[in-house]
Every structure is written in structure tokens, then in C-alpha cells.
Automatic annotation (TrEMBL):
Cellular component terms (Gene Ontology): membrane
Main localisation: membrane
GO MF annotation, one: L-amino acid transmembrane transporter activity
UniProt cross-references to InterPro entries, sorted A to Z: AA/rel_permease1, AminoAcid_Transporter
Protein keywords: Membrane, Transmembrane, Transmembrane helix
Cellular location(s): Membrane
Name of the protein in question: Amino acid permease
Membrane topology according to the record: Multi-pass membrane protein
Membrane spanning residue stretches: 12-32, 44-67, 88-114, 126-146, 153-174, 186-207, 227-250, 276-302, 329-349, 355-375, 387-406, 412-432
Length: 446
């Protein structure tokens, strides 16, 4: 009898940190600073919200480190939720991730990539959507071929991407800014500051994907905390320095006056050629985020297959490529369908962000509560890593997630409601729940 292929510990700490950084350092940092600047009243407040957003991200990473070290598994959050609340809640999360959260994020990043590629080589009114669809097909293909190939590609792209971001930081900190407009002092309302924080946390988003690497991370219980804390520290440092650089060249009024903040900054310090450099950097950033998001996304299909009998085929782990190949193909097909849907809207990227936000923050809140639930259910368990300052740290994380959930429901409009409706549409799947979970062996899991 043949032995079923399963995840192997093939990722080093370095590999996992690079993938995590590549997931987060993406197109958002080139788009959201102008929105944040428009919702704060001073330059110091502009930097402060980025620092606070980084601290909130670190708090979340510490909570995930405890869960990931105690329960390493290729299913990541799916596994945490199953352990804390039962398989029904986990199955609903898996459905949400497959149809809303991850596939919507893939489509959003693909749309952003398509927008910038269309500036370089226009293909007509549907050019961005065509580029978006083609990019999903290509990177899904790379990930189906094998984890080793995808990992090598991710490391290469991430180093190019971080190099470009560092170059922008250096140009901003040491370049000549010339005249900057005087800042108009305003006292933003709490709602405006809340909006600023929403976009800051959106830009930091993606760090939680590291949980899906624990099924393939070497000595995951000991190393996942290093991955999350070191990766998050790198991200916070890069993002704060980027915004300091942008502010030093453009000033707060300059940031408020342009959507293409990095392009405008490079135009000031490097002339017309600067804008091309930044466009290429943004393309690289989008490629990095897209590949890393596709890489981690297919893992939840593998985890769901042990609980839902009609999904058994997507749980097959390809032993040759060492990847959940069928899950990657299913994920790619759903992402392509969302790209087709987003094409009929005015702004495909914004539509996908709105579509995913309420569902994403709801389940992130559930994961935050899981820190308390699993400690209560297993008081005798020796934890490989404990979140510092418990219970204050997870309380801060849960409060942040609750606020973001409320904000996303209030401000995302029709697209957010569609995402919630798709979540509700997954409830009939519970009728196909296995009476006993079918084990898909995971040597790092519990």
C-alpha cells in the first residue's frame, strides 16, 4: 500500500522570514500613505499612526506565535480554530478563506499589478484585468510545479523588492526636498483617525500567513516565534522609515495632494526617470505579494479536506512537487472568477478589499480569542512559547480586531455585504462534515 504524501519540513527560519516579509511588503505601502496623511492633523501624528500600527501588528504576531508554536500545522488558522471551537467553526473559516479572504486578496493584488503593468505596456480598457488574470495563472502554475521552485522565486523577488524599498528610503532621507508646502493644522475627528488606522493596518496585513508555514518549517515549535517576531520587526522598521522618507521630501501637504506618493517623491529627487524606477519597484512588490499569497493560500484546502468528504480531492499533497497542487488549482480558479467579477466594477482593487474586510476581521478576532480558549481547555499543556504580558497582549489584539470588524462592516458598502453573504452560503457544507476527521498526516502537527 502506498504511503500518502504529506508536508515536509523543508523551510528554514530564513526562508520563512523572507516569505513573511514578501507577503506584507507589497503594493499597499506605495498607495496608502496619501490616504493616511489626509486623515491626520500633523506630521508627528502621521508618523505616530504608523508606529502604533506596527506595535499592533507585533502584538498580533506574538499571539500567533503562541498558537503556532503549540499547534504547528499546514492548516494554520484553520487548525487553531478547530482546536479551540470545533470542526464546524473551522470549516466555515476554511470556506471563507477559500471563497472570500485569500482568493479575494489574491485578486486584489493581481488587480494592482495589472494597473501598473498596463501603464508600462497598455492593452486597452481591459488590460489591467487581463494582466491580473495572466499573473494568477502564471504564479499558480509555479506553485503547482513545486514548493522548492516557488520558494526560490519568492526569495529572489523579495530581495529585489526590499532593495527597491531601501533605495526609496535612502533617496528620501538624503535627497533634496526643495520647497514644501506649509502644513494646514487640523484637528481630525476620531472617525478620521480611525480611518487612518484602518489603512495603516491594511498595509501591514499579511503577517498572519506565517502560521501556514508551520507544517513545513524546520523545528516549528521552536522557530515559528523567531519567524513572526523577526519578520514583524523588519516590516515595522521598513514601513516607518519609508514614511519618514516620504514626509521629509513631500511634507504632509504634498502627501495629501498625490495618490502616487513614491512616484512623486522620486520625481522630486531623481527627475523624470525616478517615476519609472518606482513603477518597476511597485510591479516587483506586487509580484512578491502575489506569489507569497498564492503559496500560503493553497494550504487551507489541504487542511479542510480531512473534515469535508466532498473536498477530499483538494487535500491531496503532491509528493513530487511537495505542494498541495489540487488546492492551488482550485484557489486559482476561484481567484480568476473574482477577477472577472471585479472587472465590471469601477475599481477592482477597492472592490476586492471591501469584499474581504468584514469576513477577514471576524475570523482574526476568533483566532485572538482562541489564545484564551486553548489555555483554558488545556491548562496542563506546556507551551513552547508563551505570549508576553498575558492576558494584556491578547486583549489588545482582540480589541483591535473588534474595532476593525465594526469599521469594515460600517464602511465597506455592498462589496462587504456580498462577502458576508458568500460566507453564509457556505453553511450547507456542514452537512458533509465527516463524523470523524480523516487524518491527513502532518509530522509537525498535533
Amino acid at each position: 500500500m502506498s504511503v500518502q504524501a504529506q508536508p515536509q519540513a523543508q523551510l528554514s527560519v530564513f526562508d520563512a522570514i523572507v516569505i513573511t516579509v514578501g507577503l506584507v511588503v507589497g503594493v499597499g505601502i506605495f498607495r496608502t500613505p496619501s490616504i493616511v496623511a489626509a486623515n491626520v492633523g500633523s506630521e508627528w501624528m502621521f508618523i505616530l499612526v504608523w508606529v502604533v500600527g506596527g506595535l499592533v501588528t507585533l502584538v498580533g504576531a506574538l499571539c500567533y506565535a503562541e498558537l503556532s508554536a503549540a499547534h504547528p500545522n499546514a492548516g494554520g488558522e484553520y487548525h487553531f480554530l478547530s482546536r479551540a471551537y470545533g470542526r464546524s467553526v473551522a470549516m466555515m473559516f476554511g470556506w471563507a478563506r477559500c471563497t472570500v479572504i485569500q482568493t479575494g486578496a489574491i485578486a486584489a493584488v493581481a488587480f494592482m499589478l495589472g494597473d501598473y503593468l498596463a501603464q508600462l505596456v497598455p492593452l486597452g480598457p481591459y488590460g489591467p484585468a487581463l494582466y491580473a488574470a495572466l499573473s494568477v495563472i502564471v504564479f499558480t502554475g509555479v506553485n503547482v510545479i513545486g514548493t522548492a521552485q516557488s520558494k526560490t522565486l519568492q526569495i529572489t523577488i523579495t530581495f529585489i523588492e526590499v532593495g527597491a524599498v531601501v533605495a526609496i528610503i535612502l533617496f528620501g532621507l538624503f535627497g533634496s526636498s526643495g520647497e514644501t508646502a506649509a502644513v494646514t493644522p487640523i484637528a481630525p475627528e476620531t472617525a478620521a483617525l480611525g480611518t487612518a488606522m484602518i489603512f495603516v493596518l491594511l498595509t501591514y496585513g499579511g503577517w498572519n500567513e506565517a502560521a501556514y508555514l508551520t507544517g513545513e518549517l524546520e523545528d516549528a515549535p521552536r522557530n515559528i516565534a523567531k519567524v513572526l517576531t523577526i519578520g514583524t520587526a523588519i516590516l515595522v522598521t521598513l514601513y516607518v522609515l519609508v514614511n519618514v522618507a516620504l514626509l521629509s521630501i513631500l511634507g504632509l501637504e504634498g502627501l495629501r495632494g498625490t495618490d502616487a506618493v513614491a512616484t512623486e517623491m522620486m520625481r522630486v529627487v531623481a527627475g523624470p526617470s525616478g517615476s519609472l524606477i518606482v513603477t518597476l519597484a511597485i510591479v516587483v512588490a506586487a509580484l512578491s505579494t502575489l506569489n507569497a499569497t498564492i503559496f500560503t493560500g493553497g494550504r487551507v484546502f489541504y487542511a479542510m479536506a480531512r473534515d469535508v468528504r466532498i473536498m477530499r480531492w483538494v487535500g491531496v499533497w503532491d509528493g513530487r512537487g511537495r505542494t498541495p497542487a489540487n488546492g492551488q488549482l482550485a484557489q486559482g480558479a476561484i481567484a480568476l472568477a473574482l477577477i472577472a467579477l471585479g472587472t465590471i466594477t469601477r475599481d477592482g482593487f477597492k472592490a476586492m478589499v471591501d469584499y474581504t474586510a468584514p469576513v477577514f476581521w471576524f475570523f482574526l478576532l476568533m483566532v485572538g480569542f482562541a489564545v484564551f480558549v486553548l489555555r483554558w481547555r488545556h491548562p496542563e499543556r506546556t507551551l513552547p512559547y508563551k505570549v508576553p504580558l498575558y492576558p494584556v497582549t491578547p486583549i489588545i489584539f482582540c480589541a483591535t480586531c473588534g474595532y476593525m470588524l465594526w469599521s469594515s462592516v460600517m464602511y465597506t458598502g455592498v462589496a462587504g455585504l456580498i462577502g458576508l453573504a458568500v460566507l453564509a452560503a457556505g453553511t450547507p457544507m456542514l452537512l458533509f462534515k465527516e463524523k470523524e476527521p480523516q487524518p491527513l498526516p502532518d509530522p509537525a502537527g498535533d
